[in-house]
Amino acid sequence: MGAWLNGPMTWGNAVVIFLWGAVFLMIVLGFVTYAIYFERKVIGWMQFRQGPNRVGPLGLLQTVADILKLLIKEDTIPRKADRLLFTLAPILAYVPAFTVLAVIPYTQKLYFADLNVGLLYYVALSGISTLAIVLGGWASNNKYALLGGMRSAAQMISYEVPLVISVVGVILLSGSLNLRDIVEAQSGGWFWNWNFLPQIIGFAVFIIAAVSELNRTPFDLPEAESELVAGYHVEYSGFRFAFFMLTEYVYVYAIAALTTVLFLGGWQAPAPFLEFVPGILWFLLKFAFIVFFLFWIRATFPRIRVDQLMGLGWKVLLPVSLLNVFLTAVYIEVFIKG
Amino acid sequence: MSEEEKKAQQESGPADAEKDEKQKAAETTPIAEAGQTAAQQSVEAADPEKAAKLKAAAEARAARAAAKAAAETAEAAEASAPPPPSPKQPELDAVTALIRREVADEALEDAYINELNGHMPTLIVKNEYWRSIAELLKIENDFTYLRNVSGVDYETHLEVVYHLVSLRSGRELAVKIKADREKPEVSSATPVWATANWNEREIYDLLGIVFPGHPDLRRIMMPDDWAGHPLRKDYEPLDSEV
Amino acid sequence: MIRTEELLLNVGPQHPSTHGVFRIVVKLDGEVITEATPVMGYLHRGTEKLAEQLNYTQIIPYTDRMDYVSAMTNNYVLVHAVETMMGLEVPERAEFLRLIVMELQRVASHLVWWGTYLLDIGAMSPFLYAFRDRETIINLFNELCGARLTYNYMRVGGVKWDAPPGWIDKVSEFIPYMEGKLREYDKLVSGNEIFLARIKGIGKYDAETAIDYGLSGANLRCTGVDWDLRKAEPYSLYSRFEFDVPLGQNGDCYDRYRIRLEEIRQSLRILKQAIVQFPSSGETMGKVPRAIRPPAGEVYTRIESPRGEIGCHIVSKGKAEPYRLKFRRPSFVNLQILPKLLIGETMTNLITILGGVDIVVGEVDC
């Protein structure tokens, strides 16, 4: 893949790249469809009920039906809403979500872009979605939406910082921002070579900050259903709302993939005797586990309050992640270099 | 007890009532006896044998009547022989004494025991003194808990009933204030018991009684621009077929 | 120049967390509430006016619909008031059935409160667990009187239906099941850090304020005031059973939460004793005259519903219909403290505090 990507850009190559992009988009959409279905099933089982089981065999076509419903709805824009910003917000939310997927490596050979600053690219682009949420909240001309948008901006900015700093430890250990190199640095055959054990503090902070970045329970204030009646996307319906939902689940994909790559060893097998299993399968397994973990948390925890959330982000996560960086630096100085 | 007897008792106190009852009972028997003697005399003049039979019958009747009258007197005497003083009577006396002493003698229109309701002491007070009585009851007499405020529309007047209880001792008290139908006003108890706030608003809304001294008297159940007071007996509903 | 404005926000009448059709007009400065005004009356159905044209037995279904989460206690307060006025004696079996049904209703009502409170706070799953357990109780009621929510079960002088054979055994099976579930719920929720951070110290008030505002039920007992009508002014057969009245100390939402969960345990305790003492045979209706005409006079009876003190004030002129029937509804009175508690709180805490008061809007509006 790498050689081909580095080759000359002919018309043929351009068309193939474009088609690859389209195929990947279809895969991501397929993932989103079945992630939503899986989430509803898992949460249902945890709540002593079955999830969707009517539409299609075992309810597998439920999300398809839901998305179809959303797509055929009337396109309403509130009269006093800012039309341009209102239409722009969902698009602005979704585009970065999809573009950050470009840097995720799936196996040694399967990747889309091999950026030397892959991690930085990811973090930078995911910040644009925050902007889109605030935009959506403002443009809706609705106080609830505004409150939701403001809360979301505050939350996401607060948690970007610990998210990035918790990853600095990984960067120090791997010596590179390139995601493929980071996975390579975790090779060693056994699962304790993966970054989640040496970087356990960073891992914990990363998980918490990631859940917060995703706006999921327990950090789902911007869309707190029972308080703000859906927060920033209360005025959106039809395919615009579908875009916001899509953004959220594509980010779930992105964060799960990122966690797998950064902390769980990407495509590496947990033990040398299991290396006959293709890497992509390991990647998918770890990825699926993280996605399941996110759903599990959603079914279990109550929501945290806005001021407590800010307190947690700035007063707890930030100092802890800084401590992690310091400890990693000391460790590298003492044990690796010296 | 019938309404009149109750009222009689209220006005004169339990001790006086029994005297009234005994008087009434005593009055009925002489009249009965007088009627019988007149009849006997007219019959005797006509036929001696018949007269004798009639006399015997009349005597029997008289005996039965006398027995009945005696029984009735005994019953009446029993019924109104002071009903065992209600167990809550001393409480009622203490409260009335306190009010008469601290507020004014004529502040109380009436004080009685409501037997149906577990012998709850009930006071009827005059509106001008209600606020001072309320403060007195809360501070001096430990009636800190106002449990209920109801408005009632008796067709001649309106009335507000406050039910109080003392949490420490378990004593209860009901206080009623009457209000005129044309311009009903009852001093608000909200400055004394904060819980009266919405209760009085509800009574204002549904019955039209104004509570001067209430911090925020406006409609609570009905829409703000509703005309009329629905719970009144003479209220014409908007949709009369409903 | 930057200028800030106060935001006027309407919470409701359509809102997932206001427990019914109920509106709070809130003035916000950022996220902090500066003023809150509840607006109610959306569910006002004129029960008290209607009652003036119906005889007492006809009013019983209306009482079901006032506090629809706890319909049995509503039935009881009306029926008890009429029986007090008429001096009627209720046969023992009927009284036991009433007590068992009222305590089961208390458990069911507190389960609804628990599930919906946690749903408001953001935890989705306990709602379903609570409703699963409540389903058992509702099915018991369904067997007993044919209805799941509005029972119309009690009558002046007794109850309408006798317990079907095996019903009491089902109740006694339910008790240990529920006790086990309560332990499970404690482990799941009551120790959760996020939950405790959301609830502790919120919505505090002291005993004097509580008494002044006429609060009742768990709202009063969370401040430490020991006033439970089942013990202070015993009615029905409560004086025969041993049970504790849980009290709080701080007067905050957490205390109210703990008290209500503990009340479920105490209700189960009463039920255990009641089932043991339940008479195996007896009448379900006492000697009641054909036409129920209480003597002229007035009466105010009150009982302890899961929400607090529910009272019934009847003024009768000796006819079959009441001259004036007024219900003292605990949710209505308990709600008065809300504007005071909300000043200075954030929007999130509004939901937490409102849920903690435990209102049912059918009762607020009557």
In what range is the share of β-strand residues of chain B? Answer: 15-25%
The number of domains of chain B is 2
Helix segment tally of chain B? 5
Helical amount among residues of chain B, as a percent range?
Answer: 40-55%
**Percent helix among the residues of chain A?**
55-70%
The percent range for strand residues of chain A is: under 5%
Runs of chain A in which pLDDT lies below 50 for 5 or more consecutive residues are: none
Q: What is the average of the pLDDT values of chain A? A: 87
Secondary-structure element series of chain B: HHHEEHEEEH
Shape of chain A: globular
| CATH fold call of the largest domain in chain B | Beta Polymerase, domain 2
Name the pair of protein chains with the most residues at their interface, and give those residue counts: B-C, 35 and 40 residues
Structural class of chain B: alpha+beta
Strand line-up in the sheet with most strands of chain B:
1-2-5-4-3
Q: Any overview of this molecule?
A:
The complex is a heterotrimer of chains A (338), B (242) and C (366). Chain A is 67% helix and 0% strand. By secondary structure, chain A is an all-alpha fold. In chain A, helix 2 packs across helix 10 (239-263) and helix 4 (83-99) runs parallel beside helix 10 (239-263). The longest helix of chain A is centred in the N-terminal third of the chain and has 36 residues, at 11-46. Chain A is globular, with a radius of gyration of 21 Å. Chain B has two domains: 3-80; 89-207, NADH:ubiquinone oxidoreductase Nqo5 subunit (Beta Polymerase, domain 2), CATH 3.30.460. Chain B is 48% helix and 17% strand. Chain B is built from five helices and five strands, in the order H-H-H-E-E-H-E-E-E-H. Chain B has helices at 3-46, 48-80, 89-102, 127-139, 196-207; strands at 108-114, 120-125, 145-154, 157-165, 172-179. Chain B has a five-stranded mixed β-sheet with strand order 1-2-5-4-3, covered by helices on one side. In chain B, helix 1 packs antiparallel against helix 2. The model of chain B is unreliable at 1-39 (pLDDT under 50). Chain C is of the alpha+beta class and 366 residues long. Chain C has a single domain (43-329), classed as Orthogonal Bundle (Cytochrome-c3 Hydrogenase, chain B). In chain C, 48% of the residues lie in helices and 13% in strands. Chain C contains 15 helices and eight strands. Chain C has helices at residues 47-51, 56-64, 71-86, 92-121, 125-145, 167-190, 193-199, 207-212, 218-221, 229-232, 253-277, 330-334, 338-342, 347-357, 361-365, and strands at residues 7-11, 23-29, 32-39, 154-155, 158-159, 297-305, 308-316, 324-328. In chain C, the strands form three sheets. Chain C has a three-stranded antiparallel β-sheet with strand order 1-2-3. A three-stranded antiparallel β-sheet of chain C has the order 6-7-8. In chain C, strand 2 (23-29) and strand 3 (32-39) form a beta hairpin. In chain C, helix 5 (125-145) packs antiparallel against helix 6. Chain C is globular, with a radius of gyration of 21 Å. The termini of chain C are far apart. The mean pLDDT of chain C is 90. Classes of the chains: A mainly alpha (338), B alpha+beta (242), C alpha+beta (366).
